Amino acid sequence: MRILIIDNDTSSNKILNEALNKKGYQCDIVERLRDGQYYLDIRHYNLVLVSETLVDGESSDLIKEIKTDTPKTAVIVISDNQDNKNEIEALLAGADDYIRKPFDIDVLIARIEARLRFFNFNKTIKIDDLTINTDERRIFYKDSEINVNGKPYEVFAYLVQYRDQIVTKEQILHALWVDPELVTPQVIEVAINQIRQRIDKPFGITTIETVNRRGYRFIYPKQPE
Length: 225
Prior knowledge:
Helix 6 packs across helix 8. By secondary structure, the chain is an alpha/beta fold. A five-stranded parallel β-sheet has the order 2-1-3-6-7, with helices on both faces. The chain has eight helices and 13 strands.
């Protein structure tokens, strides 16, 4: 897997590059946004590690471009800023994680690997007439592709992985949101509602069951009672 590091902290870059190389990752390192954009135009990256502020600008526009052009590329922002407002803005721009300096190198690598596992495992799950292509983040019912993106897709794919098990809102939040304390459990309800509107209702099926006061469970195909 290939990782692009965009940061002007040369000493940190060297340590991180060596640690990632030992793990088997290939790294390209640049110090400016424009150089990062150049590499993104000519190579595919599984993950981009980018400093929040660089000498030639802020990273937010680049993050938006990455998520538009290659949504499967994970983006982690590293920052010297301690203000939560900056973190929220980075996440809203599309960043998948946000880490403040100084960071522990082992913790950072663990966060990198967690993101790569989530975004890049190649697997197609077929359950009856429902197919989930986790590599391309696409869902099909019979021959029809279903438009489910963003967090609703992630919630759906997560519940599919734990099908027939009851999963609490807290488990979903901690699995899919970097800082679950910044969001309320109601975001799960919104995601579940979108899933039902886009998958269950149009095809007359039931995929997710609400278990009162406990959480949710993926139950497709629903067994006769």
